[in-house]
Amino acid sequence: MAQRRSTAERERRTAIPVAAGAKIGRYEIVCHDGNGLAVAGADAAGLTSSGVAVDGYDNTGGTNGTLGTHPQRYVTVDSGGRAWSFATTGTAPEHGEYAYVVDATTVSADPTTNNVQVGIFVEPDPATAGSWFVRPTSMSLGR
Predict the structure, then answer these.
(1) Residues in CB range of 3: below 8 A, 6 or more apart
(2) Residue 141 DSSP code
């Protein structure tokens, strides 16, 4: 499915090194671990949301990513500009509520086990039933 995004705001792009073995799809939620390395969005202990992948990266056969050296292994994320459409689960969201990561393509208005927040619910996606636009909120990358 092609990802829909609002055009109301300009993307705030950030490059994040990708963890060894991680595969991050384009337009999926990206989290980072305690070392600041990007992984696919998940409701897992020790993860913090980084934003939405503008370009994906497959590092399943690689070592931890780098910035500025070759080979570079990083993913570019929108860390708070545009609103992106994601499938929802649980209680129906309301405008302004926190969106919690369920997995790389699904969010919930209900707090999840590890309460990994990806952003704020903006509005329902009129083109896809059960989906809402979510604006990522900037999170610390621990650097």
Answers:
(1) 26, 27, 84, 85
(2) -
**How far is 22 from 41, CA to CA, in rounded Å?**
11
Does position 142 have pLDDT exceeding 50, yes or no?
A: no
Spatial separation of the C-alpha atoms in residues 87 and 102, rounded to whole Å: 10
Give tens-digit pLDDT for 36-56: 999 999 999 999 999 999 988
Q: Which residues contact 50 (CB under 8 A, 6 or more apart)?
A: 14, 16, 30, 31, 32, 38, 77, 79, 139, 141
